[in-house]
Structures are given as C-alpha cells and as structure tokens.
Amino acid sequence: MPRRTKATILIVLLVLLLLALAAYLHRKAPPEVARLLPEADCILYFNVRPLRAATHFDRNQLPHDPQYQAFLDATGFEFERDLDEVAFGLHRMPNPLGPNGAVAFSEVFLGHFDDHRVARYLGSIAAQTEEYAGHTIYDIPSQGRTVRVALLGYDMVAASNTPTTEQIHSMLDRYRTSALPFSGSSLLSEHYAEVPLLSVAWGIGKVSVPLKSDGIRIMGFHFPVALDTTFIGSLRWAGALRLRIEEIAPTEMAATVSSDALNTMIAIGRAAENNLPSAMTNADIRDLLNSSDVEHKNDRAVVTATLPVALLQKLVTAPNSLRSLPQPGAKPAP
C-alpha cells in the first residue's frame, strides 16, 4: 500500500475517532441551557418536549392574564406550545426582606420564536439597554426589581432578576464558550454526573444556610435536613416515569436520620390512604406511595417511586413566573 494512501487512511480514522469522542462527550455533558447558567445555589432543568408529549398540557386552554396576553400578541411566542427546554438558577439573597425576597432567579429558555418580534417587544418595555459581549441586554422594571433579558441566538433567551448585572454577564460569557461540553457552574461540575441518563427533568441543590426547626415540612411532617446537604432529583422514562431523589448528607448519621424519617413519612401516608373510604382516596397518590422505596447507604439516602402519568398531568402546568413580563409602559411597583 502506498505511503500516501496509508497516511490518508490514518487521517480519516483519526478524524472519525475525534468525532466519536466529541459525540460521546456531548452526550455526557449537561444540556446547554443548564451550562449557561451562572453560579447558583440550586439548578432546575426541564426538557419540555417529552413532558408536553406525555401530559398534553399545551392543549389546555388556560385563561391569559393581560400581561401575558400582551406578550403573546406582540411576540407570537406561547410557552405551552413553543418552549422546548428551560433551566433555572436559584440564588439565595442575603436579605430576604429586600425587593428580591429570599431568592432571585436566572433562566435560560430554548424554543421556537421570532427573534425580531421578541427584540421589538423587549425594546418597547425596557427602561434602558446595555451592550455586552456583542448582545443587547434589556433592563425591564418589574415589581420593584429589574429583569435583565438578552437574546442569545435565534432560539435562545437568557434572563435574570438578580440585583446586579453579574449573573446576566456571566451567562453571556458562558455562551461564547458553550461549545465546550463540560463548561458550566461548579454545581454542575460536581454533581451532574450523578443525574440519571435520559432524565427529562432534574434538579441539583445544596442547603447552605440553617433551616428553621432544623428541617422542612412535607404535608405537615417534619423532615430533618442538615446543613451542607445536597439533593439531586430526577424524572426519567424507564418503562414508566421514575422519580428519584437522592440526599447526600454531610455525615452517615444525618443520612440515617433522613432515611428513617422518609420511611416513617411513607408508612404514615400509606396507612392514611388505606384507612380512608375508597371514595375519598386518590388512586394516583396511592400508587405513588405504594411504589415508593427508600435506600440508605453510607452518607446517602435515596427515595425512588413510579410517578403516575395522570398525576404528572395534574402537576405540570406552564409556570406562572414565565408569564410575568410587564406590559409596554409598565411602571415598577412602589
């Protein structure tokens, strides 16, 4: 075989190997909308397309409030129909009594929209604009806060209502390097590998401040949560919708306490459902409780369950927060 032919074959094989490696890394990487989020205390991600197909929530004719209807008329974008993916970053605020309350948000939306119509609408309601990293940031007053919005591309929008521009600037900076498969926040770098493959929705969050009464309440039941606990929740299709919530506790003892509390809570829920008259029980809740299982290993407590599609259909609706863009000429709340 001529030397030139051998060299050509080697080059082709090398290119194919690199393409295969790139495809593998891309498959293992977090979704782009999540990678663009800035540093946050919690990240939530939803692949809306399979959720829409499973629940058909886009067919529900919900009444539109005037602000959302004004946005819809101006842009033609309807969240129930046109949104494909969305990721939220939650930022704990140092002053829960401030204009942002306890939590501020950063969001990245991926969907089908007319970027020219959206840009005109944003320009009509913005108090001012800023140019950064080749993008226009629209500063929109809303309920005493400033919502900063930027069009990242023909199908992607970033927004943040944090007190400063740091978060929206971070998202624009990340967008320039979004082709790198493992770029993203430290929360993703540390824990995304533990999100089950093909999850249509997931969340990663860390308890970084003490909670009142050293825990949270779920349906009136006290659930102990230790400081520095990390939660990883996911929903994926595996013949059925499988819900998985993993707690990574700071100590093995804390994980033991949590797993015991979860087992007790599930047992109480099952007993309550079984003791009520059949006319008063909810079949979906009963199926969810009966499929629930708690596993404890070292510093981790994991609860898994099968989520009935009918229950998901009742739970999944277009988030109200997505409909809160102010109307043209709207003034911030006093």
Describe what this molecule looks like in 3D:
The protein is an alpha+beta fold. The chain has one domain. It has helices spanning 3-28, 32-35, 48-55, 66-75, 79-82, 115-125, 166-176, 186-191, 252-275, 283-290, 309-315; strands at 42-47, 83-92, 103-111, 128-132, 135-142, 145-153, 156-160, 199-206, 215-218, 221-224, 230-237, 241-248, 293-297, 300-306. Strands 4-5-6-7-3-2-1-8-11-12-14-13 form a 12-stranded antiparallel β-sheet, with helices on both faces. A two-stranded antiparallel ribbon has the order 9-10. The model is unreliable at 20-26 and 318-334 (pLDDT under 50).
Provide tags for this entry.
334 residues; alpha+beta; twelve-stranded antiparallel sheet; 11 helices; 14 strands
List the helices and strands and how they pair.
Layout: H1 3-28, H2 32-35, E1 42-47, H3 48-55, H4 66-75, H5 79-82, E2 83-92, E3 103-111, H6 115-125, E4 128-132, E5 135-142, E6 145-153, E7 156-160, H7 166-176, H8 186-191, E8 199-206, E9 215-218, E10 221-224, E11 230-237, E12 241-248, H9 252-275, H10 283-290, E13 293-297, E14 300-306, H11 309-315
Antiparallel strand pairs: 1-2, 1-8, 2-3, 3-7, 4-5, 5-6, 6-7, 8-11, 9-10, 11-12, 12-14, 13-14
Helix pairs in contact: 9-10
